## 1
Amino acid sequence: MHFELSEEQLMIQQAARDFAQNELKPGVIERDEHQKFPTEQVKKLGELGFLGMMVDGKYNGSGMDALSYVLVMEELSKIDASASVVVSVNNSLVCYGLESYGTEAQKEKYLKPLASGQMIGAFCLSEPEAGSDATSQQTTAEDKGDYYLLNGTKNWITNGSTAGVYLVIAQTHKELKHKGINAFIVEKGTPGFTVGPKENKLGIRGSDTHSLMFNDVKVLKENRIGEDGFGFKFAMKTLEGGRIGIAAQALGIAAGAYELALAYAQQRKSFGKPIAEHQAIAFKLADMATQIEAARMLVYKAAWLKDQGQSYTLAGSMAKLYASKVAMDVTVEAVQIHGGYGFVKEYHVERLMRDAKITQIYEGTSEIQKMVISRNILD
Ligand code: CAA
């Protein structure tokens, strides 16, 4: 067992750190305030190869490992979790899903522009009545021979209005329950497909979250992913990797808040000395540093297992469950350490606290992660 990162991984980590400081930090408060999508920044992330990090070079990807991907997610999320969720969804849900299960023609047509960042993708599983209970899909895909007819509504879709390509999960054979579900590639602009208003959110306000409506949307059979009925397994397999990405996002949010709290505590004085020298604050910092290090080990291990070609279902869920709790706990303490300053936007920690909450909800709530973990350990 060794804990060192390779030269290449260190370089990628530094590149992401520099990008976050130079490109994401300026304007992050304003984007959050006005719910402004980081359009320019996402374009540059694509140019850096961060939108198709694990995709093979022959499909315009960067061919990096999963550990490099989590290093990038961690660094970006320290500064701007609204930008990092775009990176996470595009890499682990959309590109991974297409590269692993798409046909050659689908990869040529869709994966190449997605991996190079020419366009971004969205993953559409959640519905008004199907969030955690993902097998209860109400969106239907009626088999019409050469094509399917999609009808239904999807909710809380990341990259909802900015995506060019949507991976949509829908029910084809209701009587077969989860075995009758399919996944489809739907292009933006397909007749009958409309994007609802933007959600006004607590956190990750710069990201673009919408409901989507499908009204007799014709999708060619060649745009179905995998065999008939593969859609639910497709969603589950894809989300397994997605959960590592969100765990890394949570880790980054926690680490970003901790770094700010540490610097503030060393400079802010009360009762004649820096507040970091009061045991009340020093012990908070000690707890925060320890929790973050433990979360980091879980996240890196899950990515490492993926890189080794080993099962990472359990490790990914443990990493997400723990790192998202750490993100919540650490950001609350970071606000507390900042006192009154922590409650105002200029000091960043209140935004990180608001951003942290979603990591306990999307890509499987903490309760769902406990279901996955308990089923795995009781197997
Ligand atoms: N890999 C492969 N197959 C899997 C699997 C996995 N990880 N997990 C389950 N399956 C298969 C099972 O083997 C079973 O298939 P068979 O009948 O052929 O054996 C089938 O799927 C159904 O499994 P379960 O009986 O376990 O299903 P369940 O109804 O109990 O639910 C669940 C399982 C884990 C709770 C699942 O519903 C789930 O993960 N729910 C949460 C959904 C979620 O994460 N949503 C996030 C939305 S996406 C998002 O947030 C993206 C974004 O924009 C940021």
## 2
Amino acid sequence: MTVLSIAADPRTDVGASPLADVGVSPLADVVGADLQAPLVTGGHARYVNLDYAASAPALRSVADRVSALLPLYSSVHRGAGYASAVSTAAYEAARAEIARFVGARADDVVIVTRNTTDALNLLATAAPGPVVHLDIEHHANLLPWRARGGRIVSARSELADIVAAVEDELAREPAALLAVTGASNVTGECLPLRRLAEVAHRHGARIAVDGAQLVPHRRVDVAATGIDYLAFSGHKLYAPFGAGVLVGRRDWLDVAPPYLAGGGAVRRVRLDATSWADCPARHEAGTPNVVGAVALAAACRAVAELPEQAVADHESALLARLDEGLAGVDGVRPLRLWPEAERIGVVTFVVDDVPAELVAQYLSAEHGIGVRDGRFCAHPLLDRLHPAGAAVRASLGLGSRREDVDRLTAALTALRRTGPRWSYASREGDYLPTPDPRPLPAWAAAEALPTAGPCHLSQAL
Ligand code: PMP
């Protein structure tokens, strides 16, 4: 067991930054906003959720919509009962709402998937030719293409160079599809999608956008931007009920092999032949996630109803404060690719001399702050930005407020000045608070620990 403590380190005061009032309060009501997190040092603190990029909390309005649906929940498409009729209508209305939210063309299709990973894997079965992608992608937008021999373009140090490099690659050898992320889940930096779409189309390719990070933060207009396919996840868009979507052009998907073979995806089955349905049913075999789709649509509606400028102002004020706060903590180094890029509210950083896992455990155990540490399912990008290993990511959303950012800054300042107050045992790269007296709710621990008696966090991990 290794127990770490960090040497004191002087730093500047970050509490005095003169920023406007924007961001003082959350922009939307999220479930769990007042969660009290137990601390290893005793007592509780309001849980500061700085992990929106991994999974965002449910919007209150989304949870309400789910509660309204549940009494009427039933099978869709084939049931004759009233509840089936309501559920079927709600499911199909959800598809239309999602299409509206992303500005889909009239003849685009919305296929309900499990998440972004599922949506991109589905698209990988449908793309009728070679695929080009970047080397900075999340594994969800990397591995499906690699499995089918995708050609990699290395993302350069300037955004304009990336567009040129993609154009060179598409000119060198034709491709059916260019697959890019809308915003990096590591740096929060946004790609110039309109220009990339123009380049792809000029060379006879289509463009697919991994919108997992971008869609929760920016209004994406598929038709106006020239995006052919857009994938995103409900759980990052305030609808954590297990649905995602692939939105886009119907023709490839109408002739692709059904993603899953089974009921609902067919017109007619004989023992020796199957006639498959068109989209979306073709790729939605089995009982669909009606609750997830309705929740996702409710989130789309709720986000669309927020004033666009207010969302942008809220996020940019908090991001600026986060940047400023981190810059004031000695030894904290943000990871960036392109200084000129527009960014969503995601900042990944390393803390000199403190392993990322320890930083994250310390923030949670002693300050009630939730961040993500690791390599963010983007190993090639992390290899480039921080070859030494893992980093820490803080990410913002509609429920974030100024105090959240300031709590992070203060906690990191304390870490650099005096080190952790608790002991952390190092086990195979993980740092666990030892002991860990924080109780889990009994229902959360029951499956992990079938034995009776009080359960604590470190036992369940
Ligand atoms: N792409 C990006 C950019 C992501 O951040 C994520 C989630 N971390 C994914 C794809 C995969 O999303 P999901 O886990 O919902 O499939």
